[in-house]
Amino acid sequence: MAQAWELEQLAERRRVLVAESDRLRYQAAHDWAGLETPAAWLQRGYRLVQSGRALWPWVAGLAGLLLVRKSTGSLGTARKLWSYWRVCRKISALWRSFQTNRPSTKSR
């Protein structure tokens, strides 16, 4: 059987270890809280890039049309603006239908 002084040493060692464990647990929680904000921004940025991947070909196509087509006066410019408006409305409707039909990933 252990001596009384050995039990006291073990009890003191246990108190020191419990205090150190509490200190490390607090430090880990503090460090984790500091990482949550940058991780959230990273995740939002990744989602933004992923959602825009389908849109970039349309943007590039419209930019190409704007750069290549020659202007034919104010009536031609008005026609171009009207056709771009119609294309943008169709793209917008397509994008909204894609967003509503997409399976939700927020359940994680």
Provide keyphrases for this structure:
108 residues; mainly alpha; 3 helices
Tell me about this structure:
By secondary structure, this protein is mainly α. It has a domain at about 1-55. It has helices at about 5-50, 55-70, 75-100. It is rod-shaped and about 105 Å long. The mean pLDDT is about 80.
Please give the count of helices: 3
Helix content: over 70%
Number of strands: 0
Unreliable stretches (pLDDT < 50, length at least 5) are: none
Q: Mind summarizing the main beta sheet?
A: none
**How would you spell out the order of helices and strands?**
HHH
The coarse silhouette is: rod-shaped
Mean pLDDT metric: 80
Beta-strand percentage range: under 5%
What Rg do the Cα atoms give? Answer: 31 Å
Going by helix content, strand content and strand pairing, the class is mainly alpha
How far the N terminus sits from the C terminus, by CA atoms, comes to 53 Å
Summarize the structure.
The protein has helices spanning 4-52, 56-68, 73-101. It is an all-alpha fold and 108 residues long.
How are the secondary structure elements laid out?
Layout (H helix, E strand, L loop, with lengths): L3 H49 L3 H13 L4 H29 L7
